[in-house]
Amino acid sequence: MDPHFARRKTDRENRADAPCLKVLVVDDDLAYLKLLQAVLTRAGFDVAVAEDGSAALEILSSDRDIGVAIIDLAMPKMDGIETIRRLQREDDAQQRLYTILHTSFDEVETRLRALEEGCDDFIPKSATSSEIVAKLRTAARRLEMERRLHIENKELQTLALTDELTAIPNRRALFRAATEMLARGRLLSAVLFDLDHFKQINDKFGHLEGDRRLVEVAAMLKTNTRVDDIIGRYGGDEFLLLLPDTEGREARAIANRLSRTSPITMSFGVATSSSSNDTLADLITACDERLYRYKNARRDGSEQHRARV
Questions:
Q1: Could you tell me what percent of the chain has a pLDDT over 70?
Q2: 214 near 166, Cβ under 8 Å?
Q3: pLDDT average, residue stretch 90-97
Q4: Which residues have a Cβ under 8 Å from the Cβ of 167 and sit 6 or more positions away?
Q5: Beta strands 22-26; 66-72: pairing state
Q6: Are the C-beta atoms of 75 and 108 separated by less than 8 Å?
Q7: How far apart are CA 45 and CA 38, in angstroms?
Q8: Cβ atoms within 10 A of the Cβ of 28, count?
């Protein structure tokens, strides 16, 4: 077989097998930089190059697709370790940059210094092209694994803070959000909604119909609240609305509007924080008291009430 054809075939296979990864190579030796760029491009990687640390920082600030940086240790003005140190300061959760120090100095001290400064790996310049490509493929697999774990962790966190039936925030999410707002000293009003005659719906039509009504109410509340408001299922047939930077009078007006919009009649109680020491538990206790006063007043005929069940 023609050896040139064999090499071309190998290159094609490498490109097909290579993970989707963009690599930045940083080296002040232009001849070596071009050689490494050619090797990695032939192996199927998308390669960007920089001749010094400053140029590398500039490229990385504008290109968020770069996943790995191979950085020469001995460079003028800013050496490889200083470059990596600067990159780590500017790194964020959205861009996990895998850094590899590349140097002709292969002493143990150099390796230890590189790792102590936060480098992910170390490649001596004496390494063969195959070794360098293998290192990058390992980096690509690790980055992909980290990306999947990050997504899975976000999904798990979302599930932990979401009510399974209605797909709105659950009690845990409500307490977390309220605690954060109150800790910042923000004014917070809370509205506790309780669905009227909900037990009758379950008894007469079954729990599936009851679940359907809960989903309906949750959708209505979500659709008719403001962007910064947080509506969640507090438990059973109770929903809690958090209204940041909202005074009591405005909160009651919002609660009245929502209760008129609801597909099932509901009662509510409203409470507003009065000091930085207030907690969501305090507000809910106050809401509970006002909600049941409101229910009793309606039962006594103080207000016109027509059950829509």
A1: 87
A2: yes
A3: 59
A4: 218
A5: parallel
A6: no
A7: 10
A8: 16
Closest CA to 83 of 107, 67, 59: 59
Query: 287 near 248, Cβ under 8 Å?
Result: no
Tell the residue number behind the tokens 């408001």, with chain if given. Answer: 229
186-203 pLDDT per residue, tens: 999 999 999 998 999 999
Q: What is the DSSP string of 11-23?
A: HHHHHHHS-S-EE
CB 45 within 8 A of CB 23: yes
Provide the mean pLDDT of the chain: 85
Distance CA 179, CA 212 (A): 31
CA dist 122 and 108 (Å) reads 11
> What is the amino acid identity at position 161?
L
Q: How far apart are CA 182 and CA 180, in angstroms?
A: 6
Distance between CA atoms of residues 47 and 38, nearest Å: 9
Q: Give which of 27, 83, 87 is closest to 53, Cα–Cα.
A: 83
Task: Looking at 161-240, list the stretches that DSSP marks H as alpha helix, in order from N- to C-terminal side.
Answer: 171-183, 198-205, 207-223
pTM of the predicted model over 0.85: no
